[in-house]
Amino acid sequence: MYGLTIVTPAAAPVTAAELRDRLRINGTAEDGDLTEFLASAVERFEDDTGRPVLTTGYRQDLAQWPAGGLIVLGRGGVTAVTAVKRYLADGSTETLAADQWRADLLTPPARVQLAAVPARVTTAAGIAVSPVGCVEFTAGWANAAAVPKQVLTALKLLAGHWYENREAHTEKKLAELPDGWARVVSRYKLGLSGSWGQ
Length: 198
What we know:
This is Head-tail connector protein. The chain has 5 helices and 8 strands. It is α+β, with helices and mostly antiparallel strands. The strands form 2 sheets. A 5-stranded antiparallel beta sheet has the order 1-2-8-4-5, with no helix packed on it. Strands 3-7-6 form a 3-stranded antiparallel beta sheet, with no helix packed on it. Helix 1 crosses helix 2 (31-49) and helix 2 crosses helix 3 (149-164). It starts with a strand and ends in a 10-residue tail after the last helix.
């Protein structure tokens, strides 16, 4: 099992002004709502695909060291692994040396291979420390210009759909997604589930 924590959040790759132009809205009075819909569309994309849109920093905590020392990272579009750490009995961390692990970012899903599985740490009372360790990494496209056009279009479509149906009172209408959303999501979906042996 693992847990993902966002350490460095990212901004939305589409501005309220861009969405306003697309929806042909005059004036800035509704920019607050448009910004909220865009942020929600980004969240939905990331939930549906397991991949952040813009560069985001993560910490993936591990409940146990995986057998064989192969750690599969729980996000797509990983661009760098910055550290692999082991938790100590006092709650602090110890960074593993660079020669104790290597990252494979070219073959999805991204993963880290440990040279050797670290020894289990216990407290003075003999209780095993959990989580045992963590991997810190970044994932996502570098900037809005690097995000594929179809992803930007899908985000605008979904945010625009929510804007146009903001007064909807039926669950069916609110649950509907614009045409093309599923196709874009399926192209970028990480496609992993379960604990992957972690």
